[in-house]
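Onboarding guide, step 5: your first structure request.
Type a short instruction followed by the sequence, for example:

Predict the 3D structure of this protein.
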Amino acid sequence: MPKNLFQVAKSKQIKYFLISFVDLFGVLRSKLVPAQAIKEMQKNGAGFAGFAAWLDMSPADSDMFGIPDPDSLIQLPWNKEVGWLASDLWMNGKPVEASPRVMLKNQIKKLKQSQDPKNIFGINNNIVSKK
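The system replies with structure tokens like these:
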């Protein structure tokens, strides 16, 4: 059973939650939600416009919803009243396949199912200097 974030908020004196996801350009997108509303957010998610997050959508597409992952909760060290949460994006009852977190989960699942579970992960740091 997932953690009850409302109870966690009460016990840790969290007043707000930042429900977050990362877009395709690596930009963190967040919605600040009062702790009183976290039960609803945990059930239905926080609404985001997919076209504004560069996820190959248009303004005509329905909103996507970030369902917070309770296991990702981090109480911000510089402001203990705020809890940060990663979220999984859903739209029309299905995961948003273009979201980086869903992509990573799918790749991990494929890796676990493969006969030869060897994979190399790396970070590509690009530094651009403009003069």
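Each response can be followed by summary notes, for example: The longest helix spans residues 100-113.
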